[in-house]
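Researcher: Structure for this, please.
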Amino acid sequence: MATALRLALPAADLDQLRERVRRLAEQRPGVYRMIDPLGRVMYVGKAKRVRARVLSYFRAEFPDDKAARILHAAADITWDYTPSEFAAHLQELRLIARYRPPFNHHMNRARRTHFVKVSGGLAPRVSAGVATGREDQRWYGPFVSPARVEAAIRTLNDLLGLRDCAPAMPIVFAGQIDLFSAQRQAACMRHELGYCTGPCAGLVTQDDYAARVQQAFAFLEGRSIRPIDRAVAEMQRAAEAAEFERAAKWRTRFEDLEWLLAATSRARCAIEGLTFVYRDPGDFGDDWAYLIRHGVVRAAYPWPGTPIEREAFRAVVETELAKPDPAPGPLPFQHLDEILLLMAWFRKHPEAFRRTSRLETWV
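Model: Predicted structure, token format:
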């Protein structure tokens, strides 16, 4: 009994709320919002069948299930219908971006998705991991092999002499140390081993470090293979000197970089390939046309069925084609979640590609 008294009381009359959902919600695709007592959106969800999905919250066990904890904190539930499950995914994404609900974690991004990230600051760090929402970084990917990405980035950092220490590590470049200051030492052994240029100890100039970061950008964007060239040259020198153990280590580094180069190229091609008009079939015959370019929905309209509607949509496509292609480089952070959503949708529903058409066929 004491334990039951310590449990949080629901913010609303759950029986009355359940009855309203049961009577009013329909078995249609849509999005729903959990509203707190102050009227703020605390959770956004999507559903192929709104009624069934929302009613499932009332069957969850409190406090063990997250769904029950969300329901207990909610004072109201609202919902909107969408033409299809695909439209529900997009609407959920946009509502999360708009409201930033506390119960939605990282816009529901798949946690297994990894990126190569380049931080901002005087001495940028190149690292691998999941997206964290910091806009002062470049993002490359996505990748689904965390261990291989981390190994390849470790090799790339070693060859270019880039730091991998904590982001808060104080940075001082050569020429910035007072003449009367004591000689500084690098904070870790990577400098002694020749794997880091030592920006924490004034052992490299700012221009030299920046040039090395630019080499990393060029490699990650497929504009240069200099790190691979060095690995090949070192491997050949070791083999010619009959230092086969050292040659094997350089071969491993070469394989790491070769894999990363191919993986970043595949990721770029996959995103560029998401450029078409997608006819999404609505559950009640209300099909929609989505103009998608490089993994981002640029326009969405009801499917043009009449000559006037087709001419209007043709003008929309023509306007989009007149815009220059996105410049090669890092992923656009503001569209990152939408790109991941579309990649996941067409990977999960390969038959959807049969309902796509090239942009050029419309003009």
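Researcher: Any notable elements?
Model: The longest strand covers residues 41-47. The chain is about 40% helix and 15% strand.
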